[in-house]
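Give me structure tokens for this 439-residue protein.
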Amino acid sequence: MQNFADYYSTMLARQLLKESREQRTDAGNTSDAGQDDADQIAAEHMHEDLLEYAVFYNPGCGHQSGHETKGQSKAFLKRWLSFYQADNTALPQHRNLQRLEQRKRVLNKEHAKTTAPLLATLLICLIIASLLMFGNSLFLLLIPVVLFFLVWLRVYKEVRQSSQRLKNNKKLRQQQAELLEHLSGQVSHINALENVLRLQENYTRTLEGFLRRSLSDFIPALDDWSVRDQLHTGQMQVFVLESPGILQIPDLCRQSPERLTDLGSLVRPGAEIWCAEQPYAELEGLTRIHYVCAAMLLEQGIILCHAYYDWVSDRIHAAGSDYVSWQNLLLPRLFETRFPAENVLSGDLSDELYRTHFGEPVKVFSVAVRNGEQHGCTLPLHQPLRQTLSTNMPGTLLVRHLKRDVVRLHSVLSMRIQQEQAKSRASGARKVADTHSAG
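Here you go.
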């Protein structure tokens, strides 16, 4: 009987030593992997604020986080959420729970493997104890007890670690499930579009102020009554061309350093700002960053203005204006073209987004000044005019009388410049005739 017990003790000890070594190696690997999972979730996906997650979707730029809204007003946040709709399916907790469930199955198998030697030893010890009970020596009964104790000392650390990993996994699953429920509740309360009329009013008010400042910068003595009279008589005409701001970016490399500095907060980083599409049917085809090119035709010359308008912040960026006499203007150009295969945003956009914004032909309106400066706008070729303005707003003057037809602007400018050139030639001819007659 003693030999029988010693035989099984020796065989069991060898087997346990082998399995213990394997388990220590596996336990170290799985422990590191489990810790990596826990650290990743704790570091990135434990925020209770939905704005921390890249789950806000716009078809023009994909999913974005709400970091841009930090420190902004409630009105800014409401407009921002209109452009970037919260997408519950993009919450990382969905993927985390799936990964943790898979991890739980792996940990259960590892735990069963870790505790198997202990259970096997317990079974064998019970068998040995049963056999030894037929003898008269109580001392022999200590053999299975000592054997079980030795095996327990050998494996208890791995068993404890395995149990702890299962507890950590359960805790993380509970945390992620509760957090998912909390964040999903936030999603259901914020997906409401701002009234498009309010955005149109904001834009109208901002554009009116921009045009008035540009006019007063060059003709400060002109009051509202005089402006209204000139608009009614046709002595003053106001044209505004509007286009997605992103279509102007390929031309930025040819702009002045001052203008590029003004655009620094928008150009890089921030391709997603330029690419964000309008969520409103009334403004379909336009983008969050809106380009405005204005021409105010006066008796002696023209005021050329340009600016970028952000529909979310309700702010003008990189605004500029210039007064040019008719004699210094060259004939305007209006032509169709295509963008090159690459431009300044190629590295920031996926191929699909690049084709979306730059894959279609465009029309370009440009007018040059004799000193070499260029003014103009790149427009979508087939996009109809959108109702961007609230023209009946009280307190508006220039906006009420503006025109937006680029073909008409090209025609009016060409005719006016040709008339001025004809006057200049006629005046030159009279001076030559007067010189000859005086001689």
